[in-house]
Amino acid sequence: MSTPSIWFYHDGRHPHIYRYEPPMDREQFVACIDELAGTPVEAVSFCLGEGRTMLHDTQVGELLGHNVEKWDHLIFHRAHQNASGLIEAGDDPLQIVCERARLRGIRLYPCLLVQNPGVESATVRCSDFRHNNPHLEIRARDDVDENLIWSDGLDFVHEEVRKERFGIIEETLSTYDVAGFELQLNTQPRFFHPHEVDAGRRIMTDWVGRVHEAVRQSGEGRELAVRVPLELEMAYGIGLDVAEWIRTGIVDVILPEAFGGPHRVDPNLDFCPLVRLTQSTNCRVIPALHSGVGTDRVGEGPISMMRAQACNYYAQGVDGLYLAQWFHHWPYEAGFYERLRELPFPDIMATRDKYYYIPSESSFAAPVGAEATLPIPLATGAPEQVSFVISDDLAAQHKSGRVHQVMLRIGLVNNTELDQVRFRLNGRELSLGSCRRINQMYRMHAPRHRGGPTYWYIFRLDADVCPQRGQNTLEITLLHRDVAVSGTVSLRDVELEIHYLMGRASPRGFVDPDLGFYEHAVT
């Protein structure tokens, strides 16, 4: 049996059971599979509720809302109405999704959010197991700061915790026609008291091994996939010995992504350590590919950003792509399917437009160890450097005449027109004489929010000063600071757009702005 390389994560809730007015019917529920039919998606990771409670006819776990008399949240009430309505009609939600996936030739992997918040978070979604066992939480110890977002998670040092989680997995494997199972270990990613991580690491390895054995014994060809922080040291520090799991063969697919969130497009992530670990093993590395950007100008990334990110990942030798949180595009339209079509083919994407960028700070608080590279404060006279990676061979494409333009955009905050700045790319100074400055010190309106750079510096790079394939270094030096103002100038944004032509001297698409008119086919 072939192994899937393009996976799609569906959380089973936001574009789905939350959206439809009850009673939700069978065809509406299985639409989550039909919407992906005929695309390159080979596997769907289908989330089993929000972790504490489920949205299918479980006899071991607990159905969301089974213990609620009065609802304080309309959407969670609707989810309960739709799930329980289907079950009462004889349509187990998970069963009919599995059947539809098989009909459409898509492999289905149920996904369990292994760790989720405690009893105070959205209490109408909480299980009796969580309500009745506060002593099983990490914060049950007196020396844990309850303000930490992970403190109310389950402490996996307790056998009761591991047993409850395993019971849901075992029931799913024995009851449903699935291709395997996914453990989502990168939400609220703490599993042990901070002082017990070393001992907990062995406990978690044994538990994952037990899950793997259950997966393998439940059916031929079934796989265990684990979604984990891509930084091996970070994962090790929270009790996940991913290297040991690979070495001992207790995981079949590694789904790495940036630690804990916020998750968004990042073409600069390094998967090479994981790829090296899996060489000469049967374990595959399929990294999470996100589509959210969240800057002042860009919400969801355009197709050129998806190409840049995907091609950089393929260049590291990964085995496929895991489309995480792409359900946010729902209802899916032509642009969504256009993004999907090219993703399995790095050779096709190689000479198509790309949009690289370095993630900057976001409105979402990132966990310790997952902070964005940017912004970087600039002290007068002190050069600062930032790196980015591209997969394009621009030197070769310039020779072939395929490059239309290469545009480097650099955004600074809290600077004025009197500041003097120097920019160098890979050691070569960029001429300010050819730079376009855009003043956005004050904006009355913005596409998304008004928190963007004060000034943009736009460089159109020719063949002599162009990024190289692989690692590139941008150096910024604040040479002079406007003496009339206080505050710190910071590098906030770095973006690189590459535009290609179909061939030497070809027009730039159907409408070429340099021509100034519509081209018509010659008959």
Overall SS class = alpha/beta
Which strands sit side by side, in order, in the main sheet? Answer: 7-6-5-4-3-2-1-9-8
- Domain count: 2
| CATH-assigned homologous superfamily of the largest domain | Glycosidases
Please provide the count of β strands: 19
Report the end-to-end length measured between terminal Cα atoms: 50 Å
Spans with pLDDT under 50 lasting ≥5 residues? none
Q: Can you give the helix content as a percent range?
A: 10-25%
The share of residues in extended strands comes to 15-25%
Please work out how many helical segments DSSP would assign: 14
Instruction: Give the CA-based shape.
Output: globular
Biggest β-sheet description = 9 strands, parallel
CATH topology of the largest domain: TIM Barrel
CATH architecture of the largest domain: Alpha-Beta Barrel
Structural commentary:
It is a single chain. By secondary structure, the chain is α/β, with parallel strands linked by helices. It folds into two domains: 6-352, TIM Barrel, CATH 3.20.20.80; 376-500, Jelly Rolls (Sandwich), CATH 2.60.120. 25% of the residues lie in helices and 21% in strands. It contains 14 helices and 19 strands. It has helices at residues 26-29, 31-34, 74-88, 93-103, 128-132, 159-175, 197-218, 232-237, 242-248, 272-278, 303-314, 334-342, 346-349, 394-400; strands at residues 6-10, 43-47, 107-113, 180-184, 223-229, 253-257, 284-285, 288-289, 321-323, 354-357, 376-378, 384-390, 403-413, 420-425, 428-429, 436-439, 455-461, 470-480, 489-500. A nine-stranded parallel beta sheet has the order 7-6-5-4-3-2-1-9-8. Strands 10, 11, 13, 16, 17 and 19 form a six-stranded antiparallel beta sheet that branches. Helix 6 packs parallel to helix 7. The radius of gyration is 25 Å and the shape is globular. The protein starts with 5 loop residues before the first strand and ends in a 23-residue tail after the last strand. The relative contact order is 0.09. The model has no long low-confidence stretch (mean pLDDT 94).
